[in-house]
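#struct-queue
[09:14] JT: dropping the first one here, sequence first, then the structure tokens:
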Amino acid sequence: AVLWETPVLRSRAERLERAGDHLWRVIAASGTIRGHLRVVADPLGIRYRAERLHLPSGAFRLVGEFWDADDAVAALRG
């Protein structure tokens, strides 16, 4: 398995904490978890998925898929 480097975010509103080989928790400055950021290889480049964990099912729910990590993290703010 490829261990991806942690994406660098332009915003200081969140930080990333590794949760797997391709997965990071998105943590707000207050310490609350906003969701997860997953790196996905695409034939055209690297994609970033914004996901939220659905606790009752234990499955991740896709919020959106983006070319930019900051865009994916922004989708988790709302």
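[09:21] JT: and here's the second one, same format:
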Amino acid sequence: MAGVLVVDDDPDVKFVVSLVLKRSGHDVVTAGTGQAALEIAAREMPDAVILDWVMPGLFGPEVCRRLRAMPGGDRVAVMMLTVRVGEGDMEAAFRAGADDYMIKPFGHEEFVARVEGMLARAARPGSDPDRWP
């Protein structure tokens, strides 16, 4: 796939996020459920996943955990894009393996900058996602 997978059950959010990413030159594929996202990732692992928290079936953190357990899933940049604002929610997302966390509604320029930053870090040769910086 070599692009960005946008996962959200809200078609309007999915449309806006996809449009913003496409206008910035990214290839985008979408999914409306966590299960559909995992099926897409199993066929061809994306470079990045933009993941909603609350969806039918699997919630975002569980999708993130399962994605990370897949072959190559440790190299995917994952951003949780959600309305959940609690500190505990952010902690749970990071513990599940998310690289970034952004709250809806969001500024388009900041969103693109964060996605491109995640992609740049993930693309570094020999990069170790568990090592800071």
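[09:30] RK: nice, looked through the second one.
[09:31] RK: The chain has five helices and five strands.
[09:31] JT: good to know. Residues 4-121 form a domain with the Rossmann fold fold (CATH 3.40.50.2300).
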